[in-house]
């Protein structure tokens, strides 16, 4: 299908020209704003030849094309200009005015707030697990060491409002320091100490201009601070517009705090606390009255929730349950789901004939054992479909079993084998039995269901809806690969691509953009930059420089093509915080400064700076490897290795 035919098909499948209110494109995809999203046939779009993925995200219909997106965009523009007078390219930037599904908005908001906090949340949870194991074994009882370890494990749970204040401020695009001040209002000793002494003093309110401030404990609370920061985002803008510019730096923060602190203590805090308690009690009631069924349903659907990002909706409830009751009944089902997907991945490892898929299934299976299932789900089990649902079935059975034996988790941590110490049940052996059963059942059900692939080990094209998380680790000290099979021989033509920036390496699967995370754009690696500079990794030419300067397409002298995409959805910044030192078509030398950007500015605007570096013409190579999968990397250090 040529570009013009592809454009015609895309236009038809988004509901026709009359359904389009806005169109633009970034480095990888067409971005449509439609008058009626329901008229878009996403399923057919996703299977269209030339389309890597179609999805509804951020109020847009995104059609991932890849390297030729600019050419297809030109054809779409030509067709729409001929037939109904053109498309307003800026219309999609007025996205907030478009009516969106409230459920999607809530889920996206929760995910956006909790995702940045997860490292601290999981880290403290795992330390809490260590403390629990030490205490259970009777070691170091009463020692200062155990006291400090317990303190570290409790840090984020006690001061959670501060963590959520920062991430909520970024999500709602308001001042993060004033948001922290709101958290301080909830956590100030004036409130916490008075709340702790209610039983002794009998005083449960403080009078504020005739209005009662309820004395409540807000440590570990979730909803009050999120509500407060959300409301503040509107109050701040409202106040700021009425204060003269030369006085804003003095008066705006003062007025905002004078409004918000009483408002959150009198209204928002109590409302948020009551809602959190109701949710906690409601979930506990559900598990106490229909425990087995509730556990079975949650266990079965947990991997499906992960696919759609809906699992983040459970995070506030889990945190609230641990804070209020000391444990949560939701995490055992997540543990069952993760271990079952690990077992399913191991089943694929046994069944598949593909060496690449064996590597992916084995590595992602072990990753799932430790609580990270996205590589196993997107890269292995969902790719063949049957193993994915085999894992879901196993998780449902074990989730029901866990509910039957009243299993719960005493800390928020990655649901995996390292966190088993934080789980309890009627008898602890039931936790172990359930964990082993989830792995074994996921494995056995996958063997029973089987997989469909060609004689050479390749899965049918129509089933390749995911992407194999097959970025492998190799210690690359030179340009010669070692011989590991009769089909793969050492070659002096192997090529090393050096890092174009300095930062922390992350697996490409961690990028919050499925076009990159699922390797639809090509294999590669991600870097969280610590410096705002991008350098040329080789001699070649600049094939593409997008007007927003957030993405660069490069072609090396020997034909290797790579895409460097700075941040996630940074196209919406319209070039703000970016400064290009090159032009499209320009020749470059290794080490040339290509683009400078402001990581802090991008982050403060609410965008993730994680940068994807992928080989877009990977089909021309036998394999694309990375020299490491994690850790720091400096500009010009070896990063990607291409095997002919």
From TrEMBL:
Lineage: Bacteria, Bacillati, Bacillota, Bacilli, Bacillales
Domain PTS EIIA type-1: from-to ranges: 513-617
Major site of localization recorded for this protein: membrane
Alphabetized UniProt keyword annotations: Cell membrane, Kinase, Membrane, Phosphotransferase system, Sugar transport, Transferase, Transmembrane, Transmembrane helix, Transport
Gene3D superfamilies: Glucose Permease (Domain IIA), Glucose permease domain IIB
Coiled coil region boundaries: none
Active-site residues, as the UniProt record annotates them: 26
Name used for this protein in its record: PTS system beta-glucosides-specific IIC component
Span of domain PTS EIIB type-1: 4-86
Bilayer topology annotation: Multi-pass membrane protein
